[in-house]
Design goal:
Helices cover 29% and strands 27% of the residues. The chain is an alpha+beta fold. It has one domain: Alpha-Beta Barrel (D-amino Acid Aminotransferase, Chain A, domain 2), CATH 3.20.10. It has a five-stranded mixed sheet, covered by helices on one side. Strands 1-2-3 form a three-stranded mixed sheet, with no helix packed on it. Strands 9-10 form a two-stranded antiparallel ribbon. The radius of gyration is 14 Å and the shape is globular. The termini are far apart.
């Protein structure tokens, strides 16, 4: 992924305003990135169509508390993660991404997707971590129950 300074208008409301994401598409191709993570005033907010989660080196799951859409998959992930690790909703600085042990995004259509590279920095060993793997399995189990 790449990071980009942008704040959606009315970020807590689901909208169809993806103009910035479309405008950034050539940059994504140039950087060979799959998605863009927005931040504003150096504080992480969201992906254009997904929520973001960061696993710290202290094995704490953090996600933004405001300035983004609080999706239903985000809620599911917070509930599930709280059963096996500490969870915190707070501001996440862009600089914290480099020190993260894992980063992943969530949405109803994308499910739970690991982030392996931020800008030009490879996270960990460049493979999905244990937290995202466990949450992926729980998400798939829920889908199979329904």
């Amino acid at each position: 992924i790449i990071t980009y300074d942008h704040q959606r208008e009315l970020p807590h409301i689901k909208s169809i305003n993806y103009l910035m994401a479309v405008w950034l598409h050539p940059l994504l191709e140039q950087k060979k990135a799959d998605d863009v993570l927005y931040h504003h005033n150096n504080i992480i907010t969201e992906f254009p169509r997904a929520n973001v989660f960061v696993v710290t080196n202290e094995n704490k799951l953090v996600t933004p508390a405001h300035n983004m859409l609080k999706g239903i998959t985000r809620k599911f992930v917070l509930e599930q993660a709280a059963t096996f690790m500490e969870v915190e909703e707070r501001d996440i600085l862009v600089d914290e991404l480099i020190d993260a042990s894992e980063i992943f995004l969530t949405s109803t259509t994308k499910r739970v997707i690991p982030v392996l590279k931020v800008n030009d920095h490879i996270l960990g060993n460049g493979k999905p971590g244990s937290v995202v793997s466990q949450l992926w399995q729980r998400f798939i189990s829920l889908e199979q129950e329904i």
